[in-house]
Amino acid sequence: MIQIAGLDINFDFGKLIKVSDLIYFDGPLLSHYTSEKGDNYLYYWVDVDDVYNRWLIIRTDIFSIQQYLDKKISLHSIVSDPNDGFVYAVDIDSNAVYHNIKVVKINDLPENYLPSFESYYDFELNDDIDLAAISRKYSSGIFELHINGKNVKYGSMPLNKLAPIMPMVEDIRKSMSSKYIKQKKSLISNKETQKNIGRELALDTQYEFMYSLAGSIRIILKPLNPQLSMGETFGKPFADEFAGEMINLFKSGYKKESLVAYSELYDKNVIKKYNDFISYLNNEKLSFGLKWHNSVSNVSIKEDIKLEDTKKILNNLSDFEFDKNEEISLDARFYSLNVKTGNYSLESAEGDDFKSTGYLDEERKKIADTISFNKIYKVIIDRKMSEQIGGKEQIKDSLVSLIEIKD
């Protein structure tokens, strides 16, 4: 390997986060890394011997990288004119340990370490980021939201297109989290254990923003809980399970039966918010990916919704109708009644604002003329609810039990 002149330094480049490989041939040749502060670096492979691979590390900016990917400037321009006025040379062994770290002036670089003047980008971009490395670093599961599509470039997109996305994703998360926590707590009888599990669940199903990375637009999130938690009665970490539930929601749109199953497990509000989000992607011509990786528990799951898929999902959602039957029992008084048709209106006598308008069933219709407006009755109402996505909720009430409450 060529000997190069430079100033030896001690800098931990191992803390940088890999964003993507820009050039890959039997291994990475040019890769994009970023620091937690948002500084951008390019790793450019230049030499090899029996022990080390040598890389030049160039601090640059996202605008220059985008110009390079758009073939407006060459790689030579970036390497020969770095932000710092110099580059770093490092030798990396097979265990990814850094050696011989030097600051090198551009004029001291061997001629064959510089790309050619015509080194314009002419490769297929592979912008998968190394979520496993981020997960290992924080000993936590990591969520990646990946946005691509019209007017989205490498690391940039119009703010008016980006701004609505996070609130919609958060609305979906909040609706799911509330239901998920109730489901898990209902499996536990001990009140103190319920309380403790509830605290863990609240942290496992909420996320904090870490940073955004280039490679289209990538938003990195991690659970608020700093530790991997699971209840004694559960077989997998809560964070993994809830992340899987969110990803399953995005998968459900491809089949109508999956949408029905999901609505029964959660509720119509989650499906409504999912519909709103997919509609937004379709209108703005965007694709969306959701990926979860947890190196601690060795779990990796993902779902990608491509632009051409949004119309298919919206078509399934347009045919989706939410149906729910429930039995309502309460003390009530009547304020309207047609003894001939059996049509009634009543209100709760229990101090709340519940009201019901519907029809008496055949047995109750026979005794309709005995019902008094100044009496209170114990009633049971069979309520059928249906709603099409984007439509108005339809409620049909049938009174199936009526018992007068004696003073």
Structure commentary:
The protein has 3 domains: 7-113, no CATH class; 131-319, no CATH class; 323-404, OB fold (Dihydrolipoamide Acetyltransferase, E2P) (Beta Barrel), CATH 2.40.50. The chain has helices at residues 62-69, 75-80, 131-138, 159-162, 165-185, 191-204, 238-252, 256-265, 268-284, 307-318, 362-365, and strands at 7-8, 17-24, 28-34, 40-48, 53-60, 86-92, 98-105, 142-149, 207-213, 217-223, 286-294, 299-305, 321-337, 343-348, 355-360, 377-388, 394-404. The chain is of the alpha+beta class. It contains 11 helices and 17 strands. Helix 5 (165-185) runs antiparallel to helix 6 (191-204) and helix 5 packs antiparallel against helix 9 (268-284).
Brief account:
The protein is of the alpha+beta class and 407 residues long. The chain has helices spanning 62-69, 75-80, 131-138, 159-162, 165-185, 191-204, 238-252, 256-265, 268-284, 307-318, 362-365, and strands at 7-8, 17-24, 28-34, 40-48, 53-60, 86-92, 98-105, 142-149, 207-213, 217-223, 286-294, 299-305, 321-337, 343-348, 355-360, 377-388, 394-404. The protein folds into three domains: 7-113, no CATH class; 131-319, no CATH class; 323-404, OB fold (Dihydrolipoamide Acetyltransferase, E2P) (Beta Barrel), CATH 2.40.50.
Topology, pairings included?
Layout: E1 7-8, E2 17-24, E3 28-34, E4 40-48, E5 53-60, H1 62-69, H2 75-80, E6 86-92, E7 98-105, H3 131-138, E8 142-149, H4 159-162, H5 165-185, H6 191-204, E9 207-213, E10 217-223, H7 238-252, H8 256-265, H9 268-284, E11 286-294, E12 299-305, H10 307-318, E13 321-337, E14 343-348, E15 355-360, H11 362-365, E16 377-388, E17 394-404
Parallel strand pairs: 15-17
Antiparallel strand pairs: 1-7, 2-3, 3-4, 4-5, 5-6, 6-7, 8-10, 8-11, 9-10, 11-12, 13-14, 13-16, 14-15, 16-17
